[in-house]
Amino acid sequence: MRFLKMDLRAATVAAALTASLGLAAAPAEAKVEGDTIILGSAISLTGKYSTNGIHAQNGYELGVKVINDNGGVVVGGKSYKLKIVYYDDESTPARGAQLAERLISQDGVKYMLGPYSSGLTKAIAPVTEKYKIPMVEAEGASRSLFTQGYRYLFAVLSTSEQYLASSIELAAEIAKKNGKKPSDVKVAMAFENDPFSLDVRAGVVDDAKRFGMKIVIDDKLPRDLSDMTSTLTKVKALKPDLLVISGHSKGAATAARQIAELKISTPMIAMTHCEAAKIISKFGAGATEGILCPTQWAETLSYKDDLFGTAAEYDSLFKKSFEGYKNVPYQAAQATAAVMVWKDAFERANSFDSEALRDAIADTDMNTFYGGIKFSPAGNNIAKPMVLRQIQDGNLNVVAPLKWASSEARHPRQPKY
Amino acid sequence: MLDNISILFQAPIFAVDLLVQGLLIGGIFVLAAYGLALVWGVMNVKNLAQGDMVILGGYVAYQCTLWGIHPILALPIAFVVLFVLGWGVYAAIIRRVVDRDMFTSLLATFGLSLLIQQALNLRFGPEVKIAEAGFGTFDIGELSIPAIRFVGLGLAAILAICIVLFMRNSRMGQAIRATSQDPRAARVLGINTDQVYAFTYALNAAICGAAGVLVAMIWNIQPFYGLVHSIRAFIIVTAAGLGNLPGVIVAGFGLGVWENYSGFIFGAEFAVAAVVGLLVVVLMVRLFQMYRLRQVVR
Asked: What is the largest CA-CA distance in chain A?
């Protein structure tokens, strides 16, 4: 009996081995099939990042569809269509890295689009680097991605340290306007203890130092954040001029709610992920009045290109193409922009060689509905600033930088709790 | 750190604020911990899915708000839903591990915890949810305290009193206590211990569900937030000792207050660390107490 069992096990192992060998041997050349260029992406379709992962996938798909409908990608005088192969990374970095390996070595993908989140990008970048496969990513903002010397990684979005830095600048401007010195400004910070939020924090600390501002609170919020009472009590006690918060959607939701409940009267509050957490609809326009929210992109900006038209036109096309969107998340817009970078690079390189394409991507200098795209030698986009919006009577209005501001910043904040 | 302590002395109002907020939140901790003590004491099952049942109760409240039911009314609904579910879980899983060693029950309830998390994630998605009760804020002098916290404490107290009365006076309550003292003797006396176990586990799930409704109203819920609630419940029960209801109450409120103070003094990142640190201190004190006790006995 025991022998029989052993035999069975051996047979299964043998079968699995042959199967995997067979798989590995089958498709090696899948980068361009007929008149279709295949791009690959591991993306979070399930798990904790699935909401934003799906936004990103929709952004990719809209980019592919519009490019294909408008003559495709022209290489060597011939028009090619784009197609993306997706795998679900289940929001786990280890799985993301495996899937990137599989896309490249088994499916033969030579052109990669990024996953969702900095963590997943961090896991996948070493793989694409190993195989020298260029990856244009749209959802990994962590500054640490661009200090590793990666040669094949390019990001269309602004890096995380810029997220809240503009609020420091705004606080300095307002202080000057009111006849005070920027160095008199007291800053309170509450950041989640994760790589992304700590990057955002680093940007704030740098800028606060530049102006000589005093940091009076520097709390790190736990990952499973549901109560900020102790931090906010400290804010009440120390009365800072500016409160900055970053902790993904849960941080924004918790903060917006408890700021109202505890009637925090800080004149200026800035936080990331306002839109993702839907704080206006959840807690009301009165309670969230005056909160500053940074964003990568807004449909009210005057960016435009030939393919999608203006930011507003992209916005309405996206809403028409996908059901259930009241607002178009910037995660989708930047994903579309990443597909546009690939099209532009293919046409300028006029080749399918990944090395030539890498160089073409590095030389990118284009204007899109999402903003300018030009990569630094490290691979991050330096042509597009973060914009700061303020909740004014329940609407998000751009208040900084001044070049794109549609309204003036309201200071101090006048919430109705 | 010293700056923060000096604030508390210079402006005692904030010390009072933290104390009140902590006490108000402590009631919820007491509920979940009492449920755990019940299952642990009666069945010797260490329920690692305790916090996930709390979160599950929160999602019942959230679902009710989607249907237009006020979250306060969701409390009895969550109680009943989780009771039924708890009974089902007992019949399907816990019955098979109740007589096995500790690790089997730990493993089984850990699996259950994962199952609940992933099911909630599939159904409701990973974003944080709130069951908004819309009670606004209470202003007492300089203190602003969310009214829902008072309501939450009141509801927790009512529920706790009901459970205590039930355990004291009802037939089933007596049977549960008898079984926890000596299951064999209870069986000899004609108590259907299997049914007692099922009821105990279901009651625990129901208590967790009710606590979860309060959590969803006062804080927020997310499929993966169960773990902190489990840890808190284990800390309270360990510190208080099994079958020590006054101890559980004191430890629960103490934990709420200590979490707030340590968050204020050491920074929010150390709030949980401070709680676990406190547990270490409590365990060491207990160890010395027992050591002395042993010497006396000798």
From this structure: 90
Domain boundaries along the sequence of chain A? 32-158+300-374, 162-295+387-404
Residue A91: closest CA among chain B residues belongs to which residue? Answer: B126
Instruction: Tell me the count of A-B CB pairs closer than 8 A.
Output: 104
Q: Do A48 and B14 touch (CB under 8 A)?
A: no
The pLDDT of residue A9: 53
- Average pLDDT, integer, range A317-322: 95
Which tens digits make up the pLDDT trace of B115-150?
Answer: 999 999 989 988 889 998 888 888 887 788 899 999
Give the H/E segment covering residue B30.
helix B12-43
Establish if B128 touches chain A: CB-CB under 8 angstroms. Answer: yes
CA distance A262 to chain B (A): 5
Q: Which domains are delineated in chain B?
A: 2-297 (1.10.3470)
Q: Specify the CATH number of the domain A32-158+300-374.
A: 3.40.50.2300
Q: Which fold has domain A162-295+387-404?
A: Rossmann fold (3.40.50)
Domains A32-158+300-374 and A162-295+387-404 share a fold: yes
The CA-based angle A98-A193-A223, given to 5 degrees, is 75
- pTM value is 0.82
Q: Is A320:A390 a contact under the CB 8 Å cutoff?
A: no
